Sequence to fold (281 residues):
Amino acid sequence: MRRKQQKIRKLMSMALAFAVSMVVVTTAWAALSLVDFQSDLKEFKPSAQSETLTSAAKEKARAPEPSTLVLFGSGILGMVLSFVRKTYIVAKRAIDIFLASVAIVLLSPLFLFAAVLIKLTSRGPVIFTQTRMGKDGQLFQIYKFRTMKVDAEKETGPVWASMDDPRLIPGGEFLRKTHIDEITQFFNVLKGEMSVIGPRPERPEFVAKLRTQICDYEKRLTLKPGITGLAQVWHRYDETLADVRKKIKYDVLYIKRLCLWTDLQILFRTVRVVFTGEGAR
Fold:
């Protein structure tokens, strides 16, 4: 009985945090869209009464410099945005749990379909696990439906996937193109290792090389990795170093613009990518 009450209280606190964050985000968004310091400064005109003041009175009644007002206003706005971001990151965990739970229930027929397809077309396990690097460099095991032959990298070692990859099993290309192979990662979300939206988790072998070759690469490790994200829906899979550099730009942009509105846009874009198969390998 006590455990049920504790769970109810926890859910209520998460819901309250989510509601508060929505109010704060909405307020901040409205402030960003309404406050325009540059236009306010252009419209500023001194009144006729101020022009008749003596030099001594002008000295006493001098208003702050426009640049000071801008700096002061931007400082307050920066504090508000920082508070909004921190609040949303806390609420984001509650959103992740909700979305992952709903997705697992609704997509359960696809879980069964993928498992049967893999078993009928190849030998080996249905679920494939692989070490990935998450937030702050922590390693975890990511879950995926197996789309390649067993020991696919035994001879080649860690390599990026490519078009018409010969290592794919029959039906593997379909699972990848529709992104069905990634729906098992909702369990990673429930475990707290991943988020629904965030930078794509990379293999530690690749991270060790790329962090020395690409500026700002480690910034993407400041957030939990995601099943989908800005780079995932607007950029193709990595095949070259140039692809990774472009992906990092998307990841850094997402970190800078992290908010509810950004995540909603990514979710809507994800639906399109899933149905069209854009960027899949």
In short: The first helix runs from residue 2 to 34. Residues 25-63 have pLDDT under 50 and may be disordered. The radius of gyration is 25 Å. The chain has twelve helices and four strands.
